[in-house]
Design goal:
Length: 316
């Protein structure tokens, strides 16, 4: 049983309908109607030592990564991140570790003008659980379920560097390259800079945490559609091409931990959006099209169309 089957079987039935819940389980965040003109977005992520990070990593980096992966959920929903709570489980009280961790939290929260508003601490194996809350103008949150046949699929940046960092953790490579890859892994940059564009153009969106093929599949399943990708259009980090050659796209599709956004836009709105991106000095990449037939297909470099299994990171 994978993570999403577990959720569907045991917890989705508890998602009882209430008038203020616009959408709940099954998106990057829940969306609640609180008052006229404002929706509240809420999301929770847990990071566990030896699963999501190595215990020997610097506490500052662990804190930064914890904040960024949560902020990325807000970006995917076109929400402004505002508040966060922290539940921290520690094997022991280590003042030096906690000082570095708190410093990382402070620097990361300041980047987005966010504040820590509460939480909990307890003893046990090291884990970090954060709940993030953000806001959008009423009705402007972007879910996974709005993609339509004919929509163009875009990604917001190059893929695969964080997954390559993990793959090469114990491999000797030039220091500059190692630093570049570890920066992508430890300090992802959530695409908050895109939220206004998403509100104006996107029909569906998701952040790429588990891998492009797996996360695009979530959009397809939620929207009742399929997709066809163009392999040559998928933006891969240059170091993937150096170390993996023809296998570079495979890791870009399945590796995860990119925290770029995958989103869909009506074809007739794409020229206007791309012009706005150009004026804002932003790069986003059209990589395929939404189709009515279920499943994901990919046209490879040899112009052959193959079924693409939605493989990515799995928790179970």
């Amino acid at each position: 049983m994978d993570e999403f089957s577990l959720i569907a079987q045991f917890f989705k039935p508890l998602d009882l309908k209430r008038d203020e819940v616009l959408f709940g389980i099954g998106d990057d965040a829940a969306c609640l109607h609180l008052s006229d003109g404002v929706n509240l977005l809420v999301s929770t992520d847990t990071l566990v030592s030896d699963v999501h990070f190595l215990p020997e990593w610097d506490a500052y980096d662990i804190a930064c990564r914890s904040i960024m992966v949560n902020v990325s959920d807000m970006a995917a929903m076109a929400a402004k991140p505002c508040w966060i709570t922290l539940a921290l489980t520690l094997p022991e009280i280590n003042s030096q570790w906690l000082t570095s961790f708190a410093h990382g939290l402070k620097d990361s929260l300041n980047q987005f003008n966010m504040t820590l508003i509460g939480g909990d601490t307890t003893r046990g194996p090291l884990s970090i659980t954060m709940t993030i809350l953000g806001i959008t103008p009423e009705g402007q949150a972007i879910s996974r379920s709005g993609a339509k046949p004919g929509d163009i699929i875009l990604v917001s940046g190059e893929l695969g560097a964080a997954a390559l960092a993990i793959k090469l953790l114990d491999t000797e490579i030039p220091r500059q390259e190692k630093t570049e890859l570890m920066q992508k892994l430890l300090h992802p940059k959530p695409r908050i800079d895109l939220i206004n564009f998403l509100r104006g153009y996107a029909t569906a969106a998701i952040d790429i945490s588990d891998g492009l093929s797996a996360d695009l599949n979530h959009i397809c399943v939620a929207s009742g559609v399929g997709a066809c990708l163009n392999e040559n259009a998928i933006p891969t980090h240059f170091l993937l091409k150096k170390y993996l050659r023809r296998k570079a796209v495979d890791l870009a599709l399945t590796g995860g931990d990119d925290y770029e956004l995958c989103f869909t836009v009506p074809e007739n709105k794409l020229p206007s959006l791309m012009n706005e991106f150009k004026n804002a000095n932003l790069l986003c990449y059209p990589i395929g099209v939404i189709e009515s037939a279920p499943g994901i297909r990919i046209n490879n470099a040899d112009n052959q169309c193959n079924e693409l299994r939605p493989v990515g990171y799995t928790h179970f």
